[in-house]
Amino acid sequence: MLKTVLITGANSGLGKEAARQLALLNSTEKIYLGVRSLQKGEVAKQELEQETGRSIFELFLADVSNVESVRTAVNSITEPIDGLVMNAGGMGGSNPSQKTSEGATQLFAVNVLGHVVLLEELLKAGKLTQVAVYAGSEAARGVPMMGMKRPSLNTSSVDEFTSIIDGSFFGNEFDAMQAYGPVKYMAALWMSSLAKQYPDVRFVTMSPGGTSGTNIMEDLPPVMAFMFKAFGTTLMPLMGMMHPVDVGAKRYVDALTDSSFESGVFYASKRGATGPVVDQGTIFADLNNPAFQSNAHQAIHQFLN
Known about the structure:
Blueprint: E1 4-7, H1 13-23, E2 30-35, H2 38-52, E3 57-61, H3 67-75, E4 81-86, H4 106-124, E5 128-135, H5 158-166, H6 176-197, E6 202-206, H7 222-232, H8 235-238, H9 245-257, E7 265-271, E8 274-279, H10 290-301
Parallel strand pairs: 1-2, 1-4, 2-3, 4-5, 5-6, 6-7
Antiparallel strand pairs: 7-8
Helix pairs in contact: 1-2, 1-9, 3-4, 4-6, 5-10, 6-10
């Protein structure tokens, strides 16, 4: 039973909807809303209180693209939480290939590096007791119908994973849409590696699927962002390529509350980006490779040591 849950990226979209659904469960006693802006967080908090009739929401100020911001935020938590949803992410802003002070691209930092610090600092401090859910993506095993290729690595070595983090893997033409898949692939490997290190906590990578009504594509170039927004709310749902935000958020809630979702496994749609979820290792065997999982973990920590 989860009494206390922290959700990153909780002021809108999937994160906010997951908070709403969790608040409707009588067992939930406190929900930390992870936000970058206190002003937007307060608005979301008030709206959630009105929608659910419950005053169980508390703001958690952290920018997951900034490692030090995350470390400071973890120190503000004074009591253990039962569940964590690492939902924040996106395409890395207007300059996704720009390097952070750690040497990672903005795309990698906002999707992975900040969450690595958040989750592992919570674990080290004994502040996470039951389950961690990371927002995966079908892009990590490829979505041909959406123009996203399956990540194709030569060796899956520590050095090759390092090149994904610093962006050199992609050469001079850094395309956030094509880099997104390998970044999410690395995150799934990292989560699987943690499952071996912490057997008393459940680590689930769960894709929310193709979800309309989110702001993940707003960081793309204006024309492409407009196309995704326009088709994402009209044509793509009709074609079965996207589903509503409540469906995507429910995947998070199910991963949190249903122990049949196994630790160390990456779940996402069986086909495309909607429909029933399955173990993605049955589609892309590299996800289950222990050596690749260890190499991805090691590469990530080279940017944090």
